[in-house]
Design goal:
240 residues; alpha/beta; 4-stranded antiparallel sheet; 10 strands; 25% strand; binds adenosine-5'-diphosphate; binds magnesium ion; cell membrane; ABC_ATPase_HisP-typ
């Protein structure tokens, strides 16, 4: 589904991604772990071109999206993204947050948009919040709405950048529960997270990033029980 070849990203003199090569299969759940500043967010953002790579290629569903003539908006519709800070529109209620893009970008009718939104709200367990505003919701509820909003575009891939890092501990579980459901339905997911229990249970593959490189990758068992690199061991020792 996604093929990344020789991906490099520099911010001025700072070389943040150093020749990344990786492939992600349809239906795969990939968890990315690694120290702060190792380039995890930048990598995710290069996948959907929120950051433009300095060099290298990203092929998504057979299309080299890094070549200039491609339609970035079309591509982004196919890749949902969920951020640490929710990024809901504060002046819009939940239904409007969810239906804005499908109506504007996909030309969905208001009725169809609302029908889809209500189904998604049911899936994330928040049907009763359809007409609430973001400020009336807890962090965990906001993040579940953000997931519903991304799903409303019917993406083929979901990218998550530390979706539970800004939450109070008691709200982490409800968000991971929704993500688990998505994974079990076969959604292709790339997830940056420090939730190792979740990674062990749900990930098909764990990638350890360090200093802009993929240092090692493997099944959760391999990475957590038998890490090969001293840097991986160090990192796991600090967070487990
Ligand atoms: P991680 O998500 O693993 O913590 P990031 O991808 O956010 O790492 O950042 C990797 C490095 O790139 C850090 O040194 C960070 O300061 C730098 N960086 C990230 N975004 C930018 C930017 N827009 N401009 C300049 N430097 C950036
Ligand atoms: Mg980050």
């Amino acid at each position: 589904m996604i093929k990344v070849s020789n991906l490099n990203k520099k911010f001025g003199q700072l070389h943040v991604l150093k020749n990344i090569n990786v492939e992600i299969e349809k239906g795969e759940v990939v968890v990315i772990i690694g120290p702060s500043g190792s380039g995890k967010s930048t990598f995710l953002r290069c996948l959907n071109l929120l950051e433009y790579p300095t060099s290298g290629e990203v092929i998504f569903e057979g299309i080299p999206i890094t070549s200039k003539e491609n339609n970035i908006d079309k591509l982004r519709q196919k890749m949902g993204m969920v951020f640490q800070q929710f990024n809901l529109f504060p002046h819009m209620n939940v239904i409007d947050n969810i239906t804005l893009a499908p109506i504007k970008v996909k030309g969905m009718s208001k009725e169809e948009g609302e029908k889809t939104a209500l189904q998604l709200l049911k899936m994330v367990g928040l049907q009763d919040k359809a007409y609430s505003y973001p400020k009336q919701l807890s962090g965990g509820q906001k993040q579940r709405i953000a997931i519903a909003r991304a799903l409303a575009m019917s993406p083929d891939v979901m990218l998550f950048d530390e979706p539970t890092s800004a939450l109070d501990p008691e709200m982490v579980g409800e968000v991971l529960y929704v993500m688990r459901q998505l994974a079990s339905k076969g959604m292709t997911m790339v997830i940056v997270t420090h939730e190792m229990g979740f990674a062990k249970e749900v990930a098909d593959r764990v990638i350890f990033m360090d200093d802009g490189k993929i240092l090692e990758q493997g099944t959760p068992k391999n990475i957590f029980l038998n890490p090969q690199h001293v840097r991986t061991k160090d990192f796991l020792g600090k967070i487990l």
